[in-house]
From TrEMBL, chains A, B:
Domain HTH tetR-type, chain residue ranges per copy: 6-66
Keyword Transcription: yes
PROSITE patterns named in the record: HTH_TETR_1 (PS01081), HTH_TETR_2 (PS50977)
Swiss-Prot/TrEMBL keywords: DNA-binding, Transcription, Transcription regulation
DNA-binding region location: 29-48
Protein name (record): TetR family transcriptional regulator
Keyword Transcription regulation in record: yes
Any Pfam family the entry gives: TetR_N
InterPro entries cross-referenced by the UniProt entry: DNA-bd_HTH_TetR-type_CS, Homeodomain-like_sf, HTH-type_TetR-like_transc_reg, HTH_TetR, MftR_C
Transmembrane segments: none
DNA sequence: GACCCTGATGTCAGCGACTGCCATCAGTAC
DNA sequence: GTACTGATGGCAGTCGCTGACATCAGGGTC
């Protein structure tokens, strides 16, 4: 006989998303999530550092994809490397995941606390990208700027991809947004 | 006889920054801040929505400067308008404020929770700028991109301005960073 | 002067997030 | 069989934060 059912972590994540969607983030207690997953509050906090984190697990994998894109990119032009990183990260969001991403994003968009956490994650991503670029010999300030721009492109692109009616795969959307950034910044000032 | 000394809000802010710098954000309780300011915990929460917010009051004024820059900018090129907004916002950070900004930033950089809040504020700024640009007829996606880029430039520039040994005024640093962004994105890919 | 109203504060009770400490007990190794 | 490990539960306690109610100086009204 097994003492505990396996997959506690996954059960907690599923229970949390379901509850948050139904009653809101603030309207859901950790004890409630744990009970839904057949566990206790104490166990929840052994799997996730805090209540918000339950929605952001797996982010490490996402960051690793980004960095892999940077490592493997050819050439030394910062924005070209960033473009490669963006390309690599799209593997984390296949089309099958779009509906799930939408649901998760709805929950996040409804709570400032969750938005904070999301921003922190993206900021960490930018920092990691900056380091990766610098390791490839890019000038420090240029690296920071390129990384921040890359994350900005991702944000705008991801929001578009999530948007109603949008059907293009993420990679295609990101390429379009990046092209738009180039146009925007290149256009002579009025 | 006065029942309460005036300037409770300012006293709380000063006490908080002093304590945070001395014992860290987590190592300081709200009750302690309030006591230092000669008040109670309950009163603290009447002035600030939460413990973090005590370091971010006055942000509205900052945002207003940004928006004013957008309203008053000439021409219709998005990045030119953003440049004007950046220019306008520098009024919020005269050179006399550099030392204070450094101290405050040290506290923020030492605590992830405070970084989250800072990011949320900057994100709100980007959203406000996006709206401002759209109101001026800029294409929605271009507006979002231009605003995000503008905030990225501000972030990088502000960090530089705060940096050790840096002596140029913020406006000058921001102009340099913006120029660098243009170069970066314009450079042909390798 | 008596009256009332307002506004900033204090007091208190209570919830929920989070942590430290110790107990439990199936499975595994030896 | 004994010892060890690892995921969990139980419990007490701190702290952030909120709602409800009380207090009391100052200002206005009559």
């Amino acid at each position: 006989m097994v003492r505990w059912k396996p997959g506690a972590r996954e059960r907690l994540q599923a229970a949390a998303l379901e509850r948050f969607a139904a009653q809101g983030f603030d309207g859901t207690t950790v004890a409630e999530i744990a009970a839904t997953a057949g566990l206790t509050e104490r166990t929840f906090f052994r799997h996730f550092a805090d209540k918000r984190e339950v929605l952001f697990a797996g982010q490490d994998e996402f960051e690793r994809l980004f960095l892999a894109g940077i490592e493997e990119a050819a050439g030394s032009d910062p924005m070209a490397i960033v473009a490669a990183a963006l390309e690599g990260a799209t593997a984390f969001f296949p089309d099958e995941r779009r509906a799930w991403s939408r649901a998760r994003q709805r929950v996040i968009d409804a709570d400032p606390g969750l938005q904070e956490r999301e921003l922190l994650k993206l900021s960490g991503l930018a920092t990691a990208m900056t380091d990766g670029l610098r390791r490839r010999g890019v000038d420090p300030t240029a690296a920071a700027l390129a990384a921040e721009s890359g994350v900005a492109v991702f944000r705008v692109g991801f929001a578009t991809w999530i948007g109603e009616g949008e059907e293009r795969p993420l990679a295609e959307v990101l390429r379009a947004v990046l092209a738009e950034l180039r146009t925007l910044v290149t256009t002579p000032q009025a």
